Amino acid sequence: MAGAADEVVDVLIVDDQRPFRTVARTVVGMVGGWRVAAEAETGEQALVEAERVHPAVVLMDINLPGISGIEATRRILASHPAAVVVLLSTYALDDLPGDAAQCGAVAYINKEDLTPARLRALRSVEQAG
């Protein structure tokens, strides 16, 4: 992620639901220094966009058409290990697929809880790592 306060954090939003991508774009826009670099509707499209824009942060839906968000996360991190991937879903934490914890994502955020404050907290996670 951005090392200095004045650097821009490029974000890739991956979700198959246009209304949620709109909400996520609005939330990202409320975080100073963050911008949406690209959006994707499928796991496969997420891989293409990650190669194109080299995002610092990926907001990744778990359930996607084609390859899952969990598999897309693994593949993106294999190519871009410095990226910070956050899994998103409507699942309760206890109901996440078992392989969600092993895919390399730094956090899980329920879609209802996606706020600018939660995104700002990701900077602390990345700087601590």
Automatic annotation (TrEMBL):
<protein>
    <submittedName>
        <fullName>Response regulator transcription factor</fullName>
    </submittedName>
</protein>
<feature type="modified residue" description="4-aspartylphosphate">
    <location>
        <position position="61"/>
    </location>
</feature>
<dbReference type="InterPro" id="IPR001789">
    <property type="entry name" value="Sig_transdc_resp-reg_receiver"/>
</dbReference>
<dbReference type="InterPro" id="IPR011006">
    <property type="entry name" value="CheY-like_superfamily"/>
</dbReference>
<dbReference type="InterPro" id="IPR051015">
    <property type="entry name" value="EvgA-like"/>
</dbReference>
<dbReference type="InterPro" id="IPR058245">
    <property type="entry name" value="NreC/VraR/RcsB-like_REC"/>
</dbReference>
<dbReference type="Pfam" id="PF00072">
    <property type="entry name" value="Response_reg"/>
</dbReference>
<feature type="domain" description="Response regulatory">
    <location>
        <begin position="10"/>
        <end position="126"/>
    </location>
</feature>
<keyword id="KW-0597">Phosphoprotein</keyword>
